[in-house]
Amino acid sequence: MRNFQKESLFQLIKSLSKSEKRQFKLYANRLQSNSDTKFITLFKLLDKMNIYDEQKILQSKIVKREQLSNVKSHLYKQILINLRLSASTKNKRLQLREQLDYVYILYNKGLYDQSLLMLQRVKAQAEKLDDTAVVSHALEFEKEVQTQYLSKTSFAYVDELVNKSLENASHNLTKSKLSSLSLMLHAKNVHFGYVKNNKEYKEITKFFDSHIEEIELETAGLSQTYWYYSSYLLYSILVQDLLSAFKFANKLIELFFLSPEMIALHPVFFIRGHQYLFEILFLLKYRSKFKIALERFESTISLPGFPRNHNISPYIFMGKYNNKINFHFLEGSFQEAVPLIPDVLDGLAQHSDQLDQHNIMVMYYKIACIYFGAENYAKCIEYLQLIIDDKSLRVHQDLMCFSRVLNVVAHYDAGLDYEIEKQLKKTYKFLLKMDELQSVQKELIRFLRSLTDIYPSDLKQAFRKLHASLKNFENDPYEKRSFLYLDILSWLESKIENRSIGEIIREKASLLIR
């Protein structure tokens, strides 16, 4: 495990762009008459390193061992100060907080008139930007100032200030409850996946009903409305009510296009909202709407005014490539998706510090599916193995489960008969341990275990029998999730008709007019 305390400064320096490094050197040289101060020399040394090496720092004799911690802390602080100075000219949220600091400075100088005047401007701007945290700080501070300034303030204004403060506190509480509910639902989805039976459906519905906060949509701000729609959307995804999920995903996205200035202020919300929309359209196989939404999304994020930084870039990467791949899956154009893989791997490497384990494993699964559809089974197995070898089990249980099932199928298609029995035992053992064995999986595992006993002349009939059996589960509310991760019916049809799985999916896509 990484020693974060030791590497935090190094990671910060490596996250700087060329222009940010240049700005910092200019800033640092202005701080001291001697440009070769210890902290700037340490900065230059760390900037040249590819891997953090404390021994190399000590050998350079820039600082003594006992001084190193203090010099590193000072350098870290100065980099952040410089980043704030440069970022505040572009970031409206930072500008608001900077102005709030000025309000405190004026107050401490006893300049109450100027302090209150600036506070009103900050409060008005924060309300416009839906920055409820700054509004809350401004209102609380104004009440503090008014206790020393009350003789010049009317009772009506004080009454209005108190009511605004109470209203804002109530608004923030509702927003906090909704964002907490949304986070919990997202965590349930990431760790456990869709509901698997009626018991789980009742449990998640009871949980949702007991935590959801109804709001007045006409008066709610963007962030409160966002978390409200997000909560209903995530609940709908968990219980696999895809039409309801589509409705709330659309509502969530239109929040931004109705107030375009909010896109730059909440870029992560904007991208995440699209991720939900794309996921639903993919599950509904709504190819035409998926294409339109993807084109609009790519057009918006390519605009010059769309924010780009180390926090947002990974979301842009995932939003772009995850859904380019999904569109190829909808079309069945697996060979055409293969050229995307090098860009995906480059992106995963570039954003490895920002992306969580779940997102990385999802991309590995999609790469494996591309190779499976393109009939490159060796590469498919290679990327599935990266997921299977993850022993932490902190990622989506459904993802871990179906990676193993697809791995067995890929071994069969690759003709690795000597490996199949071993893979089947491992998969069966894992599924039992995870309590994930659904009827579709049981049927599939039972079939694959019997393959060695089936004569080649009887194989197509066996495929037809399995296809007929699995077809009964296609619309089952709890069994159909198996087909969301692995299109086993199309795979069986490809075996029965001696055609590629891509060809089968393309034919289905042409018949499904959406």
Query: What string gives the helices and strands in order?
Result: HHHHHHHHHHHHHHHHHHHHHHHHHHH
Coarse morphology: globular
Helical percentage: over 70%
User: Which percent band covers the strand fraction?
Assistant: under 5%
**Count of helical stretches:** 27
Query: Over all CA atoms, what is the radius of gyration?
Result: 28 Å
Sequence stretches where pLDDT stays below 50 over 5 or more residues? 1-5
**Count of individual beta strands:** 0
**Gap between N and C termini, in Å?**
48 Å
Helix-strand makeup class? mainly alpha
Written account of the structure:
The protein is an all-alpha fold. The protein is about 75% helix and about 0% strand. The longest helix is centred in the middle third of the chain and has 38 residues, at about 155-190.
Topology:
Layout: H1 4-15, H2 18-31, H3 38-48, H4 54-59, H5 65-87, H6 92-108, H7 112-128, H8 132-146, H9 155-192, H10 198-211, H11 222-238, H12 242-258, H13 261-265, H14 267-283, H15 287-301, H16 313-331, H17 334-337, H18 341-350, H19 357-373, H20 377-388, H21 397-413, H22 417-434, H23 439-450, H24 459-471, H25 481-485, H26 488-497, H27 501-511
Helix pairs in contact: 2-5, 3-5, 6-7, 7-8, 8-9, 9-11, 11-12, 11-14, 12-14, 14-15, 14-16, 15-16, 16-19, 19-20, 20-21, 21-22, 23-24, 24-26, 26-27
